[in-house]
Design brief:
Elements lengths: L4 H7 L4 E7 L3 H9 L3 E12 L2 E11 L2 H5 L12
């Protein structure tokens, strides 16, 4: 990878970027929040890890035109750097 992921997504003309993060992984949740992602839901028992079903948090980052037309608080949208 030679460029940040947000540039690759924008070049692909996407309106958002999404990810799932293990609900117990506080460090990863803090990281995606700092990067401008917002939590949009929880998938219960989404996958198995070490023999147990685990929940994950669904996060999204609005991009481009979606940011301008979204009905979400400005603080929940990534700001240009």
């Amino acid at each position: 990878m030679t460029e940040p992921p947000d540039l690759r997504v924008r070049r692909a003309s996407r309106s958002d970027a999404g990810a799932v993060v293990a609900i117990y992984n506080e460090a990863s949740l803090r990281l995606v929040r700092r990067c401008g992602f917002r939590e949009v839901g929880v998938y219960r028992s989404h996958g198995r890890l070490e023999g147990e079903w685990r929940d994950v948090v669904l996060v999204e980052l609005l991009l481009g035109e979606a940011v301008r037309s979204a009905h979400v608080p400005r603080s929940a949208v990534a700001q240009p750097r």
